[in-house]
Amino acid sequence: MTTHEQSLSPRTPIMVFGALIILTIATVLLSGLDVGNTGALLIAMSVASIKAALVLYFFMHLNHEPLIFKLFLGVAFFTLLAIFVLTFSDYSFRVI
Amino acid sequence: MSDITHPIEHHRDDEGTRLGFWLFLYTELFLFAAFFLVYSVYRSSHLEDFKLAAESLNTGIGTVNTIILLTSSLTMVLSLDALKKGSVKLAKTLLLVTFALGMAFLVIKGFEWSAKFEHHLFLQTAKGIAAGHGSPLLTPGSEMLPVGQVLFFGLYFIMTGTHALHIIIGAIWMLIVFFWMSKGSVNQDNHGVLERCGLYWHLVDVIWIFLFPLYYLVA
Lengths: 96, 219
Known about the structure:
The structure holds two protein chains of two kinds. Chain A is mainly α. Chain A has helices at 11-30, 36-59, 67-91.
């Protein structure tokens, strides 16, 4: 129908699920490392981003969607990024 | 001429519907983004309090709940795939499993919350603390929390609460789709609503993927 010859074999979802579980365990184990606040935050957010990307791409089937869906994601992502960067470019330099 | 009956044709644009639904999902994303922004600003200004407060959250429970939600996302994907292949019965079973996992998540979250209630950590206001009296829930004589920790728990309850509300909405939606599948109006050819329910469920999962490390790991 709408999705072009999409494979309906459960192999890919199960492999993606396995990767998600491994990443979850990895991020819990890595949180025990003493790498300072910024390091810990960086590691945790990087792993979370990879997991989110896996869910978006495979579970939410972005891999089978036309380009416009990916462009929308890009726009949303850059808007988010702009909001965070602008907020912190103000907040970090405030004298309270 | 007028006695010719045309079969009613419903125009259906599945791709357009999906795109519209993705737009809705982005509004949901920005709802949570506002919370994440507040969290990161307060975390940067009250780092020590945030770390201390986060230590009172149980990493084990958080990990179990993460795995439960990830598993429910998998069963949701498999349910949609089963329906696309025409095996309605399998799709319905997998949807019920997804629903049950969502409920398990909520029950665990409920236990976690009630433990925090017992320690009187629910929505204390910073203003009340500054004025020397805690929230009405704080029993007389118990210690006052530092403002940074009050902010942490306030955000914890608001963010996980909004997330739990989405779990509840997703679960109710699943039951409705389950009912429609039983009736036959959602089927192999017409599976759009299950697809959207799944997209919604996965987004709720994505948000949890970020909530989990911020509350349970970076203590």
